[in-house]
Structure formats: structure tokens, C-alpha cells
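Lecture notes, unit on binding sites. The following record was shown on slide 14. It pairs a sequence with magnesium ion.
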Amino acid sequence: MIIEVRDLRHSFGKKEVLKALTFEIEKGQCVAVMGASGGGKTTLLRILAGLLRPSSGEVTVLEVNLARANEDALDSVRKRMGIVFQSGALFDYLNVFENVVFALRRRKRHTLAELKQRAAECLAMVGLDGTETLMPSELSGGMRKRVSVARALATEPELLFYDEPTSGLDPVTAYSMDALIREVNEKTGATSIIVSHDLHSVLRVADRVLFLYEGEIIADQPPLEFRENPDPRIQEIVQKAEAEQLAQAGG
Ligand SMILES: Nc1ncnc2c1ncn2[C@@H]1O[C@H](COP(=O)(O)OP(=O)(O)OP(=O)(O)O)[C@@H](O)[C@H]1O
Ligand SMILES: [Mg+2]
């Protein structure tokens, strides 16, 4: 297991945001975390990525218990992960090459030739060969997301997190982002955790869906079974997504 969570709770002040979550994630899986707004998805992602300590419970990621680890241990486990942030979050004042090798440079000494080679490999993986000298302002939204994926891949992570990878993208670009997530998962073998409220994207990408509702996991199943789950809290999301797709097809 690459992730083992037991009885995880998290509160902000008096508000209990995650309520006794227990689940495991196997190495190499592509797992989607879905749920309505405010359900606790980003909070869970921050805890799993070692950016936020849980109020209580056990959170073992890459064999390190993040609830109890000291700062050095947290830091070394974070180095084995990559995060694709929601906004893309590129540094606007750095070109594509400098963005991609940013974390790599801070970790270890590399020659310029090594950095160039790694950047070229990662950019090729996301279909953006030869874009090294472009500035973020010269990229489309879809390209920016791809550069963020290349940046996350640069350090060869064992675990990859994506926060809302298709939000703000048009359907065609979202589709190619989904294909990319899947391809990266297959090529690198990195376990992938995708926070999303885009059902169509989840159906294309995930092996498994965890559905968070008011801080509890109310479904944990393969996407096709999830879509048929009769729970009204899930059907609300499923039906909304299907209505949107019909509207797109019509328009
Ligand atoms: N740093 C914080 N301090 C206080 N409350 C917070 C903090 N971060 C999140 N919350 C609260 O915790 C709850 C869950 O938030 P979270 O961002 O995890 O939800 P989410 O599922 O990611 O929602 P969204 O789909 O809107 O991104 C919300 O009620 C939010 O207001
Ligand atoms: Mg969120």
C-alpha cells in the first residue's frame, strides 16, 4: 500500500472537516476524490501531501506516518511526490524550462546539460517538445496545465496529486488532459490521486472513486459502479454532469 489512512480526523477550529476516514490506496492506482464543494477534498489532499498535519488518526504515505513524522522526515517524503496545483501555478517570471526544473534544481546539484535533458524528457512526455524558451504568458490554458504536469514529473515522483486538473478547460482540452493523466500513470507507474468534480473526466481517468460528503467517504468504488450508485447525494452530481453533457452536445 502506498497510502494507509486510519481514522483520520481534521478540524479547523470547532468545525470538523474530515470525520474518521479510513482507506488504503495501492501502488500504481489512479484514484479520484470527488465530492460537493466544501466536502473536504482539498483538505484531504493537503494532508496526504504532507502539507497539513491531521488533527488525529494515522496517515501513512510511502511508509512514513505523516501524523507523527518530524520535519526532516516530512520533507523527504514530500520530495517523493509531485503536485499539479489547481491554477497551474507556474512562475510567470520564469520560462518553461526554468519552471520545469525548478524543484530539481533545489534538491540536488545537476549540470545544465542534465537539467536540459530532464526538461526535454518531461516536456516530451506531456507533448510540449521544444517549448523551453516560451514564457507562461505565451501559453494557452491547456499548455500551462501540461507544463505543470511536466514540472511535477521532473523529480520522478512515486505519488502524483492533481487538484482539479480539468477545471477551467474547454471540453476538448479537458479530454486531452485526461488522456495525459492516464498516459503519465501508465508510463511512470506513479500512483495518481485526482481531486475533481468533473464526472466525465473521472469516468475516463480513474480506477476508483472516493466520494467525500461533509467529511465522510460515502462511496468507494470503480467509476462505472459509482455512476450507478443510487445514493441521492451521488445521483445529484451524476445527473448534473449528464445534463451538462447534453447541453454541450446540443450547443
Ligand atoms: N484553512 C482553513 N481554515 C478554516 N476552514 C477551512 C480551511 N480550509 C478549509 N476550511 C473549511 O473546510 C471545509 C472543507 O474545505 P475544503 O477546501 O477541503 O473543501 P473542498 O471539498 O476542497 O471544496 P471545493 O470543492 O470548494 O474546493 C470548508 O467548510 C472550508 O471552509
Ligand atoms: Mg478544493
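Take-home: The chain has two domains: 1-80+160-220, 89-156.
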